[in-house]
Structure of Alcohol dehydrogenase-like 2:
Amino acid sequence: MAEDRSPKPIHCKAAVCRAAGEPLTIEEIVVDPPKAYEIRIRVICTSLCHTDITFWKAKVAPVFPRILGHEAYGVVESVGEHVEGFAAGDTVVPTFLGQCERCASCASEHSNVCDAVPFVIGPGMRRDGTTRFRDARGSPLHDLLAVSSFSEYTVVDVNQVVKVDPAVPPKLACLLSCGAGTGVGAAWRSAKVEPGSTVAIFGLGSVGLAVVQGAKMCGASKIIGVDLNPDKEEVGKSIEKKDIVFHSVTEQSSAPCIISRRSFGVTDFVNPSQLDKRSVVEVIVEMTGGGVDYSFECIGVPSVMTDAFRCTKMGKGKTIVLGLGRDSDEVCLPSLELLFGRCVMGSLFGGLKPKTHIPVLAKKCMDKELQLDALVTHELGLQDINKAFDLLLQGKSLRCILWMDKDK
């Protein structure tokens, strides 16, 4: 009788979210084998994103118990039937957005939302709506965006897996799978920022700072960062002479975290709370002689989206909305100003097609065209994931990398 070499269920650790807003629990779970067109990945590292916070707070699709996480780097452990182009040992990043490379949307230059494996917010694998996770009692655990990277192993649809060069540092590849890819892509692919243009970025968190890098990569001449946190002025600007202290805590102590010498590329900084009686729109329009060519909203607040729109240039200004707000939020835009050639567009994953563009951005990181290292302010083990949540909620971190094998 031939030996059965088909993949078997794997027992591993995962951070499980059992109730909205409650601390995650580290549990032993079972990860089922991949089905047809699926890949099981051994996660090397993952990162905490504000989108994870949104689902944890149950602002969107409140389904529990659930394994969160969608930004990660790992190694292929096994593949299901009909999977081509991947083998055990390949270094990969899973993505929340798929790319079949065959449908009309994948072939179009104007869309990055695959028709074959459509993007859905609700839980369940994209092809059959079921889960590959069970807890110790055998009860199903729901996934997040069909990725669920807060687990030592996960199963992802083949259309949501991107092969990356093993020479790319794991934490950089991890960042490109969501936040950094979204920011850089928004400038590069969605806005198509032109050399010599002017840019305003509302919100200098990790996505906003990645937009800064994308705008700089595209040759923007003036990059205005807008943030209420005064520390972000020096974090965002070109850092040449000295290290900058970003007020956050490390895993060992409550001392400030030193961000090493990096060049994000912000040329000007505006703190809306320090403008006396002037509005941020008035200040930016004056700074640029009529408004910026491109504006990016990276916060998810309707009033900020309006400000981002109003600070763009008449006749050509383009506003890109990246911030994730609530489904019930409504944005108020002055209709008369829309008539003067301005436009507003949303941007999912920065307009990137994952399989096409993530390898391109990874090479730019290797060639130092993109410098995203400083986005990582903390590195912890999975067992300290609740500390990572606290740091992000308190505004004390940009990106925290969670290593699966740290301090085991």
Remarks:
- Residues 10-178+351-403 form a domain with the Quinone Oxidoreductase; Chain A, domain 1 fold (CATH 3.90.180.10).
